[in-house]
Amino acid sequence: MTKKPVNGMKDVLPREAEIRDYVVSVIKDTYRKFGFTPIETPLMEDIQNLSNKQGGENEKLIFKVLKRGAKLDVENAHTESDVVDYGMRYDLTVPLSRYYSNNENDLPKPFKALQIGPVFRADRPQKGRYRQFTQCDIDILGEPSNLAEIELITATTTTLGKLGFKNFDININDRQILKAMSSYAGFAEDSLDDVFITLDKMDKIGLDGVKSELIESGYSEEAVSKYTSLFDGLSDKKTIHEGLVFLKNELKDFLSDDVVSNMNEIETAVNAVKNADFNLVFDPTLVRGMSYYTGTIFEIRMKDLGISCGGGGRYDNMVGLFAGHPVPACGFSIGFERIILLLLENDFQIPTGGTKKAYLLEKGLSPEKLSIVMKEAAELRSKGDTVLVVRMAKNKKFQKENLASEGYEDIVEVYNRD
Q: What's residue 257's pLDDT?
């Protein structure tokens, strides 16, 4: 027997577990106030649902589940589909799309869903990246207007503010802007996904690196120069509005007026109601890896740390694959595991309504003395305090240091002689 967890998965120790519970409670409480309804979906989905070419690179990371019993005929199998029927979900969006189509008649319209749960990817484990991790999504289905984006951004930033995060960015773009810029430069329609994959490396290799890689990939220098000159022109634009004015003047009919007005409305509304310390930033290099995004896309960037902590966007076509008719949809996912990691690294202390008190009981404490302590503990708990009653350890000094590090302000040693 091995005592270590499976590679890429981890045991959660008490301090982290407490923080995770607290963060979940803040998330649920905040999102409920915005009208989002908690739902749950199964950990496994039909393998066909997970392999519908909507999940991008994540479809290569599916944990696949073998058929069972008489259905599993390995000797006569010719293809993977002969032995595999289910897969572990790699995100919460595909399961939500199936869930909505299966229960549409019983759900309100529009439907505001909140879903928190584990997902699985056969990825290469590293710091902050696991094969089993928690995702936290809010989605609005059935709302075609940008009211969905405005609500999602406002709810998410409000939640991050309540968790103590400040001075972060919500980077925003639109897949239609990406396509307009690429088409204007002269890239063929069937090459756009490859162009976007290279563009997505901008934060790592810079604009010159993107330019070189596109040329090395066989695209004409004229098209590449025309494309990258747009990003040069956008570099000094401070607001979404300024960036869109520049692009509209350059792209003209390649960029529709509807996309421009949609982005301007989001900027105006979000800035008017925001109640957290963040900036809404136009990022024309933002791609988001999932091929199911159809319109607005966004990402949380912690500027001080140089990392992203979540993102999302509009995916108007996915639900229709299950429902058989168009269903507009938009979602935002908080990077739950990274949020937890940041809180742990910054020694986050959970706010408490009352004090934290611990009783350390000597070995052989009399029943009468024990009863007095338990009664006192019950009274304090009824007033809202956190009370821990434990036996006194041999190394009392170490025990008290650990309790203090866990936030216990009052530590009482209880002896029979008292």
A: 94
